[in-house]
Amino acid sequence: MNAPSLPVDHVERLKRARLSLDGLSIGDAFGQHFFVNNVEFLIGERRIPYPRWRYTDDTEMALAIFQVLTEHGRVEQDRLAELFARRYERDPSRGYGATAHRILQQVIRGSPWRTASYAAFDGEGSMGNGAAMRVAPLGAYFADDYDRVVAEATLSAEVTHGHPEGQAGGIAIAIAAAYAWRVGNGRETPAPGKLIETALRYTPDGETRRGIEQAQEMPRVVTPPTAADFLGSGQRVISQDTVPFTLWCAERHLDHFEEAMWNTVAGLGDRDTTCAIVGGIVALAAGRPSLPAEWLQAREPLQFDV
Question: How does DSSP assign 94-123, residue by residue?
Answer without folding.
Answer: S---HHHHHHHHHHHTT--HHHHHHHHHHH
